[in-house]
Specification:
2 domains; 17 helices; binds zinc ion
């Protein structure tokens, strides 16, 4: 891991963290534009879910480091790499282009092979398409994602160059997640654009498994996976078997769980071994009969209606999750406790999902109070001042308990 722990690497990793304020500003601007132009593409519950997953993916390294970095470092010790090192502006341009080619195949595998889809699916569960969808990123990419980038090491791309072009690639992809920009003429032939990436996120049968490029769409045109957006076929966003949940845990595990379940239940050993490498839509033949069929219900967006008090608390929870991430990343005070910070973020994320799905049980309310006590307890470990600063936020996240009771009583009385 030595070379990855150089100060330079840390500095470069912050490229994405540095872009975050800009991302949030752009999300606010897109939302405002939507309100003004009468085409609001945001829903609070969906955006909260996406941004929570984005925050957790940034916090993932608090609990587990990338496997890829270790493998690359190990490879460097045992193999004489390319005798040259890419350098200079030509080297950077070449690395940027070739990284995108590797991204294309990594992304294509992420859609066409179940084992990889289980991780990448997180980016596609949103049934809306806006800039918050861009930040909806997986936390399990560290497992296998690196495999696709090893060729870059063998052609002499230095580690720090690879990390930088990777970050730039991801940052580029942010802006294309919008419904407010139409087709862009010649741009559509060369670059990934809002229009051709909308197709990538659509679950219409004619749009499935298309447009995998990160920055360049030329790979799709070359390898035969390109599809143009059709005016007669408006994009319907999301996955073909919606998760119908706001929970980050469910978002992470549902495909892995289905995969393991199919491997467990099928009676054929041949099928059992094939499941992880099959297309995500494939099922062992003896299990097809109990596969869920697409109901009309699954075509409407998952959108449980909640009280305004719950919406406010939900937004406050998201701010708390973000605050924990920022404190853990920026302040030494949490050094050594990052895993706890990650655990708190996840707990808040799951609780928030229940809140925005109208959970009303006494157990849920008890857990809400418990997590508030734990949060204040953690803040108290830092200082009394931190604990004091947490209190107003906690009060707001619990506000719904006092405010929406009456709303429910009124609704129950009239129904
Ligand atoms: Zn994708
Ligand atoms: Zn996307």
């Amino acid at each position: 891991m030595g070379f990855l722990k150089t100060p330079r690497y840390t500095h470069l990793m912050n490229l994405i963290a540095t872009a975050v304020p800009f991302f949030l500003f752009a999300i606010a601007a897109e939302w405002l534009w939507g309100r003004v132009s009468g085409r609001d593409t945001y829903r609070l519950n969906d955006s909260v879910s996406s941004l929570t997953l984005g925050g957790l993916s940034q916090a993932r390294r608090f609990v587990v480091l990338g496997i890829g970095g270790s493998v690359y470092a190990w490879l460097m010790t045992i193999t004489p790499f390319a005798p040259w090192r890419l350098d200079g502006w030509m080297g950077w341009v070449l690395a940027f282009i070739l990284y995108d080619l590797c991204y294309y195949w990594s992304h294509r595998a992420g859609h066409e092979i179940k084992l990889f889809w289980a991780s990448h699916v997180v980016h596609h569960q949103s049934e809306d398409y806006n800039l918050s969808t861009a930040l909806r990123q997986t936390s399990t990419g560290f497992l296998f994602g690196w495999i696709f980038y090893t060729p870059l090491f063998f052609i002499g791309v230095p580690g720090e160059m690879m990390v930088t072009v990777g970050a730039l690639n991801l940052i580029y992809q942010f802006w294309v997640h919008t419904e407010h920009v139409g087709e862009l003429g010649w741009f559509e032939y060369v670059f990934v654009s809002p229009s051709n990436h909308r197709v990538h996120h659509a679950r219409n049968p004619c749009y499935l498994d298309r447009n995998y490029g990160g920055v360049f769409i030329v790979w799709d045109r070359f390898f035969g996976s390109y599809q143009r957006e059709q005016a007669a076929e408006p994009c319907v966003y999301g996955i073909t078997t919606p998760i119908r949940s706001w929970s980050p845990w469910e978002a992470w595990v549902h495909v892995y769980r289905d995969m393991l379940s199919d491997m467990w239940r099928t009676t054929s050993w041949r099928h059992r071994m094939f499941v992880p490498f099959s297309h995500p839509a494939w099922k062992p033949s003896d299990l097809i009969k109990d596969a869920p069929t697409e109901s009309q219900d699954s075509l409407s967006k998952f959108d449980p209606q909640v009280t305004v008090a719950r919406k406010l608390s939900g937004a406050m929870n998201l701010l708390l999750i973000t605050a924990i991430l920022v404190v853990a990343q920026q302040f030494d005070a949490l050094h050594g406790y990052e895993a706890i910070a990650w655990g708190m973020m996840l707990w808040l994320g799951i609780a928030n999902a229940a809140l925005l799905s109208n959970a009303r049980s006494t157990v849920f309310k008890g857990l809400e109070i418990a997590r508030s006590v734990v949060l204040v307890g953690c803040a108290l470990q830092l200082s009394a001042l931190w604990a004091l600063a947490t209190l107003p936020a906690i009060a707001l996240t619990l506000g719904w308990m006092f405010l929406d009771g009456e709303a429910y009583e009124a609704a129950d009385a009239t129904s």
